[in-house]
């Protein structure tokens, strides 16, 4: 049955926001045992061991009140090296004693509940896991630095992933020098674990398929949970939805056919598309698109800017989802 996406305006009750802080469906099978380090990159096995050490006290159910200030671990590396897998594995292993969310989900939680209520709710967890940690604006810098400082002071541990080192957060995006104290406070929380290696989605040297035919678009849209949208309409519609609700925006969608892809006009559009791609990938949505190749959605000047790593991650995930629409297996 075809589903409708455009016009959705999901409302999430604030009381449900904390309960929703769990790993997304794509990482349902993520455990420390199912993380397969690349032998060519020893840092991956070292990261696995470091994450296991970080999780061990919580797996032994050590009481937070006896541990003093919380500790932090920060997984830094390029996209596609398994950082989110390891983060989700910790959350799954702790079975309800860990919160898992994206950076934007935590900032939205603070906005919805208020700082004190959000801090109190999160302090009940042994570990707060923050995926794709990034500081895209000064307000988020101040909020997240204070939140992590107060959580760790209360004994909650922090696990985070990013493709930017803690002391370089915000670099190239805003006047980071004006917020060095907050950025340094973020950096002090963490033990940084570097993970090297290629994007696992590209180990088979896959490339984007060509723009989809009408036959493929119609077939994909006609599947159970399939949806079909025009690219300009989709880009305009997501501007009316807060990125923290993009997961709810695409709930129930299993396949997405997109007509008339074209390069994006500005950075705000591009960042919204990145957030949408992440939520689609979390849900294993297959994607087919006509118009210009998906590789062209982020113009060259964007790929040279401060958000380059975000755009490249989105392209990597789009490639994986585009091959899924063809029935290809991406390993």
UniProtKB/TrEMBL annotation:
Alphabetized UniProt keyword annotations: ATP-binding, Cell cycle, Cell division, Nucleotide-binding
MF (Gene Ontology): ATP binding; ATP hydrolysis activity
Taxonomic superkingdom: Bacteria
Keyword Secreted: no
InterPro entries reported for this sequence: AAA+_ATPase, ATPase_AFG1-like, P-loop_NTPase
Keyword ATP-binding: yes
Ranges where the AAA+ ATPase domain occurs: 69-199
GO terms under biological process: cell division
Cited SMART domains: AAA
GO CC entries: cytoplasm
Record-linked NCBIfam families: ZapE
Protein name: Cell division protein ZapE
Native source organism of the sequence: Demequina lignilytica
């Amino acid at each position: 049955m075809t589903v409708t996406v455009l016009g959705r305006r999901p409302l999430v009750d604030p009381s449900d926001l904390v309960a929703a802080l769990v790993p997304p469906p794509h990482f349902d099978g993520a455990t420390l045992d199912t993380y397969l380090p690349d032998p060519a990159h020893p840092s991956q096995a070292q990261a696995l061991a470091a994450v296991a050490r970080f999780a061990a006290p919580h797996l032994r159910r050590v009481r937070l009140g006896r541990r003093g200030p919380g500790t932090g671990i920060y997984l830094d590396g390029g996209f596609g090296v398994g950082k989110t897998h390891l983060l989700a594995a910790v959350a799954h292993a702790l079975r309800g004693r860990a919160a898992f969310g994206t950076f934007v989900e935590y900032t939205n939680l603070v906005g919805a509940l208020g700082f004190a209520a959000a801090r109190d709710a999160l302090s009940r967890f042994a570990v707060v896991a923050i995926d794709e940690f990034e500081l895209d604006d000064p307000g988020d810098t101040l909020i997240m630095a204070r939140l992590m400082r107060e959580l760790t002071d209360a004994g909650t541990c922090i696990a985070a992933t990013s493709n930017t080192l803690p002391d370089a957060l915000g670099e190239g995006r805003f006047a980071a020098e004006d917020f060095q104290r907050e950025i340094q406070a973020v950096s002090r929380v963490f033990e940084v674990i570097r993970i090297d290696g290629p994007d696992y989605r590209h180990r088979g040297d896959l490339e984007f398929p060509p723009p989809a035919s009408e036959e493929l678009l119609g077939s994909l849209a006609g599947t159970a949970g399939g949806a079909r949208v025009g690219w300009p309409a989709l880009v305009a519609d997501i501007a009316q939805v807060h990125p923290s609700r993009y997961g709810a925006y695409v709930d129930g969608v299993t396949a997405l056919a997109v007509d008339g892809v074209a390069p994006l006009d500005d950075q705000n559009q591009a960042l919204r598309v990145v957030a949408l791609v992440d939520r689609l990938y979390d849900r294993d949505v297959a994607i087919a698109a006509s118009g210009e190749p998906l590789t062209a959605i982020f113009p060259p000047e964007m790929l040279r800017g401060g958000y380059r790593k975000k755009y490249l991650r989105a392209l990597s995930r789009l490639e994986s989802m585009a091959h899924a629409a063809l029935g290809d297996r991406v390993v």
